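Lecture 7, part 2: worked example. A protein chain together with 2-acetamido-2-deoxy-beta-D-glucopyranose.
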Amino acid sequence: MIHPIAYCILPTILLLVAVRKYRESKWGKCKNKVKLDGKIALVTGANSGIGFEIAKELAARNAQVILACRSLKKAQSSADKIKKLLFNNPTLVPMELDLASLKSVKLFSEMVKEKFSEIHILINNAGVAYPKSQRLQTADGFEMHFGTNHLGHFYLTNLLESLVANGKGRVVVVASSLHEKGKLDIKAIQSLEFEDRENLYANSKLANVYFAQEFAKRSKDKGIKVYAICPGWVYTSLFRYSFKWYHLIMVAPVAFFFMRSAKQGSQTAIYCATEPSLENETGFLYRDCKKYNSKAIFYDKLATELWDESQNMVNAIMK
Ligand SMILES: NC(=O)c1ccc[n+]([C@@H]2O[C@H](COP(=O)([O-])OP(=O)(O)OC[C@H]3O[C@@H](n4cnc5c(N)ncnc54)[C@H](OP(=O)(O)O)[C@@H]3O)[C@@H](O)[C@H]2O)c1
Ligand SMILES: *[C@@H]1O[C@H](CO)[C@@H](O)[C@H](O)[C@H]1NC(C)=O
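Predicted complex, written out as structure tokens:
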């Protein structure tokens, strides 16, 4: 005899799964099958989460992929993992890049320039998120989120701009819809004076979006296309510094409906890197494999200011 409760449990589970499937269908999938033979791609933070999935997919499409990771060891093991998962024997180039050190960014770019003369796809993906209470700095003394998520990529992109221009390449900036909660206060960034519990991660993601807009303007004539994306809420190690086990109980129900796998979270970046119909678009923000209307208000003047100040910060360190 089946217990009557079983009659309730099964439909409930089916309903929950149906809701999850419905949500998944809204997240967007990169549907094109564009092959990337002969193309060179570079992915920062390619050893984990979204970056790993992007690197794997680009390699599956036959691009040569530079895996730029915080240590050579991580890059190497990421390359080994991808090779094992794919059957097309891809060319993967593991390299060391620490975005929290401008010297490392410079050294890395010089090595890339020695090996390659063009880049077709640059994915600025790496990022950190620390608890709000923590006030950390990069090797060069910049606020950690701003320094890693924005400034390191700012410098990297500028150093590699000529290679991307040669490839008439695309640059994908992995931002976040959390940028809508961010603030961009250049003075506070310079003086490292932030209000208590201010969301420095969100601020850095706002800087990412501003950077994408400004770089799109500045590189348009060179044939470079720039796409800022929000991957959605994705199950990765990003929040490992603030995560406690009991959060699991609290977020599990919400996560079940809202949290994407790393592969699902990589779709919009892959879409922007490959989609032929985006060929003439630059400087916009995307989410769920389509254009996204940000709730934030953007000021052109602030975009220029951020650019100039970022340049000054780099100049001060890399005299
Ligand atoms: N997960 C989400 O819900 C979500 C939502 C919106 C946006 N995003 C964005 O998605 C991007 C990827 O994050 P993820 O979720 O995939 O998290 P993740 O699994 O933690 O991956 C982050 C990657 O960035 C690398 N990284 C961190 N600091 C670095 C540094 N100084 N130099 C070089 N690489 C560094 C990490 O390397 P290590 O392994 O060495 O730490 C790792 O490979 C980030 O930009 C994040 O802001 C994520
Ligand atoms: C992009 O612009 C070029 C030149 O104007 C045009 O020939 C091409 O069809 C456009 N591509 C797309 C996908 O709109």
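Residues 276-277, 279-280 surround 2-acetamido-2-deoxy-beta-D-glucopyranose (ligand 2) (CB under 6 Å). The chain has eleven helices and eight strands. Keep this in mind for problem set question 3.
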